[in-house]
Amino acid sequence: MKKSKVLLVSLTSIMAVLLLSGCENNMVVFNPEGPIARQITELINFSIALMLLVTVVVFGLFGFIVWKYRERKDNMDYEPPEEHGSTVLEIIWTVIPILIIIALTIPTVKTIYAIDEIPKGYEDQEPLVIHVTSADWKWIFSYPEQGIETVNYVNIPEDRPIDFKLTSAGTMQSFWIPALAGQKYTMAKAETQLYLVADNPGSYVGKNTNFNGQGYAGMEFEVLSQTQKDFDQWVQDVKETAPKMTLEEYEKMLEPSHLGRKTFSNTHLEWVDHSDPHSKNYTNPEMYDRGHGWPGKIFEDKDNYKNKDGNNSESINHKESENEDSHGGDHSGH
Amino acid sequence: MGIKWDEFFVTGDPLIFASQIGIALTLIGALAGITYFKKWNYLWTEWLTTVDHKKIGIMYILMGVLMFVRGGIDGLMMKGQTAVPENGFLNAQHYNEVFTTHGVIMILFVAMPLLIGLMNFVIPLQIGARDVAFPQLNALSFWLTFSGAMLFNISFIIGGSPDAGWTSYFPLAGKEFSPGIGNNYYAVALQIAGAGTLMTGINFVVTVLKMRTKGMTLMKMPMFTWTSFITSIIIVASFPIFTVALALMTFDRTFGTHFFTISGGGMDMLWANLFWLWGHPEVYIVVLPAFGMLSDIISTFARKTLYGYKSMVISIVMISVLSMLVWVHHFFTMGNSAAVNSFFSITTMAIAIPTGVKVFNWLFTMRKGRIKFTTAMLWALAFVPNFVIGGVTGVMLAMAAADYQYHNTLFLVAHFHYVLIPGVVFPIFAGLYFWWPKMFGYMLNERIGKWNFWLFVVGFNVTFMPMFFLGLDGAVRRAYTYSAETGFGPLMMISAIGSIILAAGFAALVYNIYWSARYADRNIGNDPWDARTLEWATATPVQHYNFASLPEVTKLDAFWHMKKNDQLQPLKEDEVEEIHLPSNTWIPIYMGVVFGISGFLLVFEWTIAAAIAAIGIFAGLAFRSFDYDEGFHVHKDEILETEGIWRKGANKGVKNHVS
């Protein structure tokens, strides 16, 4: 049991050192670059301090009790007393956690409400609206006011609130720029919303945290914060030089693939808003073949974008005939 | 129908090909071995058809240990792949399959069977009963769980593995994005195993309420019995939700309905809600029995009664209530209103209150005690500091605003491994070391046990501690690779090294089981630990009818007080009566087989064939209805002889067998 004590002490100290060094080093969550992320970091730091206190007290008590009441050669005839508990003590260690929880609840609830809104000091500015559409496995950013669209990178002006309107063309994903704000899910036929402000010009990593299939690991994008002047210049350049996207190109883009950066001088919002519950469905099940294993039935849906004429009865007939031979059928590519 | 065998069997990966050959050889070897040693009859009558809660418990444990190996290999493969940036050991698809099966197997086919196995073995003994309330249903529970586990396990060699994560979030897990049949395995195999678990829940609620021996009021029940009872209630409350969710998933995937799909007005958020309405209580289903085992083990090796018994009971009841009120904390980031997130933050943090009470009660149980550092006790002790780390990080995650930065990162992964390994695996190991002599008549070796303990605990911390920091630096879960520029490499490597130490610790346990089975002392008496509860008032290993005459209880820690007050009198001949016990039955294993066949056909979407096979299920039910077997009686002579042998040597092993 000497070993257990040594291990305990070393573990505690390793953890303390790591945690403390964590506060100083360059871990992204501890280096916020905007007011939203900063509020979260302050909350995290407060909780770490309080939790470290709890940990130290429990570890200390544990170490003391285990050490002091260990069985030794000279106490073999010591018979521990009958002891059933103590109401006072038990009330104490019910009340203390309650107080700690209250101490955590107040700033937590405050922060939850605060980060749902435009941060203090920026309320008088008109937020820049950017629609974010996630698809397998890329991020599409539409600037409705500017009439431009980017893929896998997003430029924003510094010191101005950005209002991200999030949705997905397919799988559920999570939109996260850890240096600037926490994350939110993107979901098809639904809209979620996220505010953030960047303090300074700079480049930050954004990523998807919600697993969505084979291309998940590569779903990163760059957030480039610029001065308002640079941003305006960039918008101007895009409008003048970037190509216009066609509907066919957009549909192609929604197929599962990795794309590099792309820039367009129009937005896909003129054809479809994926957050609209009645919008068409842009899925391509036949493109998600895993390359091994038994193929299952694929169901064809009326509201899929491929049924352009919307002739439902025919597509249903077609579906049934396809199901008949789906086991042995025309599955190739293995 | 023309079956394409190259699609039926998973092909194209050397690792999987090696496993296919390995599995085929193992199967042939096992069958040949049983035939050669003429063990078929023994296996059939003693194990496969048994309704004895002790043997069913041991089969559950065996299954749990085997599945631990499978789930552990999955974990090692993940760690091997992520040890260095841009590693090419596994491709994205293979990695996705591996982390999916790792999660499902570890929760549903390792933690659950090991805990239910220990519950099965110990609970009837602790409450002074001769079996559970419904012995045949108990066997059915096991065979359904086993059947589900086997069905799930063959997925990676036949038909393709599920690959949408153990949470299988829609729409990813639906046909729109996962057209292969892999995820059907998830829907069908978990449905079958879940039905078994639900029956176990019902069985144990009734067992604890109706089968307690004379004098054992609710507030005199050992803590493991209490926690198992509450767990069973949570099972009964939450598993039906999972059953419904899986059924809807099966409809979506097999028949093209639109419950969770994007198209046709489906709602993917509904799956997340239903899944976690079951999934969160599931965490407490596995943690609560573990808490109970710890209570009994700490109390035994500190030689003191459990401190604050009443507040312990109130705590577990509070935890069970709160467990149903926190599911939204798994998706704070789904765009809920601030009010909703605040509510669920508070309910989640509130769980820390009863849990804190329990930790302090355990600490004060040891205070003024005389703590004996057996391997079982070491596991129980290691639980406290490690679980506290899991607990405080849990409180941090419960704060919705902060969770926006932790969610789906390796910080979260580290947190739940710090809860589930110290909170479930450590207590299970403690329980195995503790109750092993009752199960098999010999103890696990203490020296190898120490190796097992230290390697496992150190390996666990080295594996998962770095993940907290990786998560805070923005490393996400379930990513099969990362670039060198992220700087995750060194900590990922430390974590991978830790996983090898962890695996060595588990290997030490397996070796210990082998070594002790061959060489351990068989002459250890009925009470080698000087324990406190009724299961130790039986022979070692326990006689098949459990108690010759049912004990009468007047106090908590009944057996301890019997020893203290010298109430362990030799059995008087006129006290002994014939004991009525249930007969073996083939129906449960038969049901497991037909459920497995029918489920397999359903996985392949051969619905008509599956429906035909399902007739076999109804045939089994019909057989059971016309089964008039009234059981058998154990004769007085046999009881007297058995009791005479072990009682002569009773208690002689005390204090002599712990090095």
Automatic annotation (TrEMBL), chain A:
<dbReference type="GO" id="GO:0009486">
    <property type="term" value="F:cytochrome bo3 ubiquinol oxidase activity"/>
</dbReference>
<keyword id="KW-0813">Transport</keyword>
<keyword id="KW-1133">Transmembrane helix</keyword>
<dbReference type="InterPro" id="IPR034227">
    <property type="entry name" value="CuRO_UO_II"/>
</dbReference>
<dbReference type="GO" id="GO:0005507">
    <property type="term" value="F:copper ion binding"/>
</dbReference>
<protein>
    <recommendedName>
        <fullName>Quinol oxidase subunit 2</fullName>
        <ecNumber>1.10.3.-</ecNumber>
    </recommendedName>
</protein>
<dbReference type="GO" id="GO:0004129">
    <property type="term" value="F:cytochrome-c oxidase activity"/>
</dbReference>
<dbReference type="InterPro" id="IPR011759">
    <property type="entry name" value="Cyt_c_oxidase_su2_TM_dom"/>
</dbReference>
<keyword id="KW-0560">Oxidoreductase</keyword>
<dbReference type="GO" id="GO:0005886">
    <property type="term" value="C:plasma membrane"/>
</dbReference>
<feature type="transmembrane region" description="Helical">
    <location>
        <begin position="46"/>
        <end position="67"/>
    </location>
</feature>
<dbReference type="InterPro" id="IPR036257">
    <property type="entry name" value="Cyt_c_oxidase_su2_TM_sf"/>
</dbReference>
<dbReference type="InterPro" id="IPR008972">
    <property type="entry name" value="Cupredoxin"/>
</dbReference>
<keyword id="KW-0249">Electron transport</keyword>
<comment type="similarity">
    <text>Belongs to the cytochrome c oxidase subunit 2 family.</text>
</comment>
<feature type="domain" description="Cytochrome oxidase subunit II transmembrane region profile">
    <location>
        <begin position="21"/>
        <end position="119"/>
    </location>
</feature>
<dbReference type="InterPro" id="IPR045187">
    <property type="entry name" value="CcO_II"/>
</dbReference>
<dbReference type="GO" id="GO:0042773">
    <property type="term" value="P:ATP synthesis coupled electron transport"/>
</dbReference>
<feature type="transmembrane region" description="Helical">
    <location>
        <begin position="88"/>
        <end position="106"/>
    </location>
</feature>
<feature type="domain" description="Cytochrome oxidase subunit II copper A binding">
    <location>
        <begin position="125"/>
        <end position="237"/>
    </location>
</feature>
<feature type="region of interest" description="Disordered">
    <location>
        <begin position="293"/>
        <end position="334"/>
    </location>
</feature>
<keyword id="KW-0732">Signal</keyword>
TrEMBL record, chain B:
<keyword id="KW-1133">Transmembrane helix</keyword>
<keyword id="KW-0249">Electron transport</keyword>
<dbReference type="InterPro" id="IPR023615">
    <property type="entry name" value="Cyt_c_Oxase_su1_BS"/>
</dbReference>
<feature type="transmembrane region" description="Helical">
    <location>
        <begin position="448"/>
        <end position="471"/>
    </location>
</feature>
<feature type="transmembrane region" description="Helical">
    <location>
        <begin position="137"/>
        <end position="158"/>
    </location>
</feature>
<dbReference type="GO" id="GO:0022904">
    <property type="term" value="P:respiratory electron transport chain"/>
</dbReference>
<feature type="transmembrane region" description="Helical">
    <location>
        <begin position="589"/>
        <end position="622"/>
    </location>
</feature>
<dbReference type="InterPro" id="IPR036927">
    <property type="entry name" value="Cyt_c_oxase-like_su1_sf"/>
</dbReference>
<protein>
    <recommendedName>
        <fullName>Quinol oxidase subunit 1</fullName>
        <ecNumber>1.10.3.-</ecNumber>
    </recommendedName>
</protein>
<keyword id="KW-0375">Hydrogen ion transport</keyword>
<feature type="domain" description="Cytochrome oxidase subunit I profile">
    <location>
        <begin position="38"/>
        <end position="554"/>
    </location>
</feature>
<dbReference type="GO" id="GO:0098803">
    <property type="term" value="C:respiratory chain complex"/>
</dbReference>
<feature type="transmembrane region" description="Helical">
    <location>
        <begin position="376"/>
        <end position="402"/>
    </location>
</feature>
<feature type="transmembrane region" description="Helical">
    <location>
        <begin position="98"/>
        <end position="125"/>
    </location>
</feature>
<keyword id="KW-0408">Iron</keyword>
<dbReference type="GO" id="GO:0016682">
    <property type="term" value="F:oxidoreductase activity, acting on diphenols and related substances as donors, oxygen as acceptor"/>
</dbReference>
<keyword id="KW-0186">Copper</keyword>
<keyword id="KW-0813">Transport</keyword>
<keyword id="KW-0406">Ion transport</keyword>
<keyword id="KW-1003">Cell membrane</keyword>
<feature type="transmembrane region" description="Helical">
    <location>
        <begin position="491"/>
        <end position="514"/>
    </location>
</feature>
<keyword id="KW-0812">Transmembrane</keyword>
